[in-house]
Every structure is written in C-alpha cells, then in structure tokens.
Amino acid sequence: xxxxxxxxxxxxxxxxxxxxxxxxxxxxxxxxxxxxxxxxxxxxxxxxxxxxxxxxxxxxxxxxxxxxxxxxxxxxxxxxxxxxxxxxxxxxxxxxxxxxxxxxxxxxxxxxxxxxxxxxxxxxxxxxxxxxxxxxxxxxxxxxxxxxxxxxxxxxxxxxxxxxxxxxxxxxxxxxxxxxxxxxxxxxxxxxxxxxxxxxxxxxxxxxxxxxxxxxxxxxxxxxxxxxxxxxxxxxxxxxxxxxxxxxxxxxxxxxx
Length: 257
Hints:
By secondary structure, the protein is α+β, with helices and mostly antiparallel strands. It has nine helices and seven strands. The strands form three sheets. The chain has a three-stranded antiparallel beta sheet. Strand 3 (158-161) and strand 4 form a beta hairpin. Helix 3 packs across helix 6 (123-129), helix 3 packs across helix 7 and helix 7 packs across helix 8 (180-188). The longest helix is centred in the middle third of the chain and has 23 residues, at 135-157. The radius of gyration is 22 Å and the shape is globular. The protein starts with a helix and ends in a 22-residue tail after the last helix.
C-alpha cells in the first residue's frame, strides 16, 4: 500500500505540485494508537458513537417505517430478524466466518429460544439509545465537531510555518487503510472524496482521500479529477481489484505446546 501511495505522490510532485507534510492537532485525541477507526473512543460526552447510535436509531427507524412490503419496521425488528436467522446473520460466535465474535454480548436479553438469551453487537446500543438527543448527545456532538473541525481538518489546511508564516493548502491527502482520515471527515461533517489509485499485493484496492472544509466539494472535485487524469496519463488504467483471498476460510488451529 505504501509503495502504491508513494508512486502516486511522486507523480503529483513530478507534475509540478508541492506536497507538504501537515498535522491534525486532534489526532492523539480522536485516533486510536494503532491508527484505526474507533468510534467508541473516549467517554460518552466525547465519543463519536454517542452521536452515531442516536442518529442511527432515528434515521433507520424513519426509513424502515416507510417500507410498505416489509415486516421489518424498526431497529428492534432488525435485531429480532438477526436472531431468528442467526446462521446467516452472524448473531452468535461461529455462525459466520466474517464475524468471528458474532453479535453476542450479554446481558442484553432478546429471547431466541426458551434456553438462549443473547445480545447483538452494536445494534443493541442503538436500540438502548432510543434516539434520545439529550445533554450527553449534544455535548458529544459539540466536542467531536470542535476537535475534527477546528483542531482537525481546518487546522491541517492552515499550517503555521514559524519561518515563513501561515501556509494554506488546497486539500489534505491521506492514504490510510485503517480509515482514520475518513473518521475525521465523518465526525467533522466535512466533504471527502476517495480516489482508487491501485491495488496491494493481495489484490485489494488502495485509495487516496482528499479532504476539505465545509462547502468545498467543488475544490475536491477539481483536484481529485486532476489527480485521476494524471494517474491515467502516467501509470495507465489502474488495475482491477482481484480480492484473491475472498474464498479463503478461517481454520482454527490448536498450537502444539
């Protein structure tokens, strides 16, 4: 992935652009130590998930309630469906290889059989929120917006160079397969464009993300389109993802002591 990104950065620089390393001052607060997306990071009044679970409950229910040919009308109905179809929906550990831990976290109780009570992974917290936009919700919303806007993307766009003053950039570029960059844009509510730039050694797609502040979609489209044209000119048409390990199966191994 790094080699693919560096090849693209070099093409951009060779075309006459300058790429400058910048920082997100909020990174230590909003991004997990391993660089991955952790929407439950921080206490409730600072957590992205506090906002997500509330908005998810209200928005999913608003959508499902309008469906005319489905018996699933709420998030609660989704939970019940997953439990009734555990073998395909991965409600329990081992049901589906793609969800090895299942969606089981006691003590949340939904009756599946007379002897089995289980709790589904994140959906249970969506249900428990009941979509309440309370004081905790608004504190979390204000906090993550301040961190990811003022101390995040907006700060990265305006780097203070103590020798030459403040520099303003066209758009931060990120190649972060752990999705930390997308996380900041999502929490800020700012526009982001992801551009495929190649594949890694496993045939999985590698992308470059362009970010900007509010109402700058026009700028992002302009620069991402220019970079896409440049990649096509310099490297040719990008390879098609192959997903080589798509059919691989996780096989439990008992290590020999």
